[in-house]
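ok new one. same drill as before - structure tokens go in, u give me an amino acid for every spot. 130 of them this time. try not to just spam alanines like last time pls lmao
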């Protein structure tokens, strides 16, 4: 986060309260009240960033909630110009991670004339290779 903050790059975390981070925030709030995490402001910021961008692209490692969040932001602008999904999700299980890019095209999350790519691989193995 240091370099993102230094370069005025927004960081979004739609699932910050999920899991142990949420638990720690809960316990922290008793000794240090006043911390506010505004998920509504986050969704407004990411959607507006996508809406007002000249071009957008999605490079998504993994899937689930984060993939859904980023794809929905691009829905606001009638789709991303390019996308690369890297995950091990398979289509047969019905998961968001397993969905092929054409599913996102059908919803308008990726532009119809885009050339999306899905890499079937473990994200933590592929990311260092890039």
């Amino acid at each position: 986060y240091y370099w993102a903050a230094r370069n005025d790059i927004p960081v979004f975390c739609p699932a910050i309260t999920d899991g142990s981070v949420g638990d720690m925030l809960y316990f922290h709030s008793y000794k240090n009240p006043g911390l506010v995490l505004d998920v509504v402001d986050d969704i407004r910021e990411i959607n507006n960033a996508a809406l007002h961008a000249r071009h957008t692209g999605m490079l998504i490692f993994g899937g689930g909630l984060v993939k859904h969040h980023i794809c929905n932001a691009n829905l606001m602008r009638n789709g991303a110009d390019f996308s690369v999904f890297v995950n091990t999700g398979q289509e047969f299980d019905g998961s968001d991670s397993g969905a092929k890019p054409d599913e996102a095209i059908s919803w308008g999350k990726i532009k119809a004339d885009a050339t999306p790519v899905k890499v079937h691989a473990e994200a933590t193995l592929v990311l260092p290779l890039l």
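The chain has one domain: 2-129. and btw The domain at 2-129 is CATH 3.40.910.10 (Deoxyhypusine Synthase).
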